[in-house]
Amino acid sequence: ARKVILDVDTGTDDAVAIMFAALHPDLDLLGVTTVNGNVPLENTTDNTLRVLDWIGCPGIPVHPGVPRPIVRRGFPGGRHFEQDDDHDPHGTALPIPAPRIAAQDTGAVEYLVETLRATAEQITLVAVGPLSNVATALAIDPSLAGAVEQLVVMGGGHAVANVTASAEFNIWADPEAASVVLSAGFDPLTLVTLDATHQALVPQTTCDALEGLGTPAGTAAARFISRRIAAYEQMAVAGNAAPVHDVVCTAYLVEPEVISTRSFPVEVETASPLTVGRTVIDTRPDSKSERNAHVALHADAARLNELLLTTFARDTAS
Ligand code: BDR
Ligand code: CA
């Protein structure tokens, strides 16, 4: 099985990605690192522990990470959707019981540096929150970029944005970190954008089928995704369906055809107040800039929905 470390800001869609990585037989989830993002660090860590406990995987270590962006101040995490609960696809605490397990004493950055540096095994790093942990690990040891087998990032967008008119949340929430990570030399670096995740919609019919599986993961996924569908409906983004961004990344690991990618030069805007956090994806065929990322702008919804159903039929909790 492919060895994976997941970096998350859990979050309903992160939660689905964690369950997928923990339960799919072709993936070996070595550990999970948490970061400030959808909710403050304390809550992303608590939510991550909830998910692993709920699906019967209490042994997968959770390492709490960086509580704020690497440069900017004033972003406390969470509630970037400045609406009431119905408009928030995450909430603060996930709607499953509080965890009976605890986080590790070793922080995320130390864990990433030690694990990626020490191991002769190839590890895929999947980062589906703001990139504060990964950028901090690189500041300690820049050679980490060459040590991982592949970096997969959920972030950015070309024709689609969410948190501002220009930017996607994960990149916007720590743009300097994103800039560091995208230019660090990870090869391959796969960037799964909003353009792709907004094509991989999960409809209410899949939620009903997930619920019908009767497994802990099926039940939880149905609950989390239904919440997202309700929120996205309010925002008039999708009809009776929602993107579940982060799970597109973990699904891609076992079935690459879930997305289609092309190599483009990508840079992150860090200066302009209007467009801060924008991923500038240079799609010009004759661009002379270095093609630093395999960018997913398309995804296959049918394949993703099918994979969710087969993976969450598994029940390690019993
Ligand atoms: C990304 O931002 C986070 O809120 C989600 O969990 C996802 O990783 C979508 O923009
Ligand atoms: Ca996330």
TrEMBL record:
Pfam families the UniProt entry points to: IU_nuc_hydro (PF01156)
All residue ranges annotated as the Inosine/uridine-preferring nucleoside hydrolase domain in the record: 4-304
PROSITE patterns associated with the record: IUNH (PS01247)
Keyword Hydrolase set for record: yes
SUPFAM superfamilies: Nucleoside hydrolase (SSF53590)
GO molecular function: hydrolase activity
Keywords attached to this entry: Glycosidase, Hydrolase
Protein name: Nucleoside hydrolase
Protein's organism: Saccharopolyspora oryzae
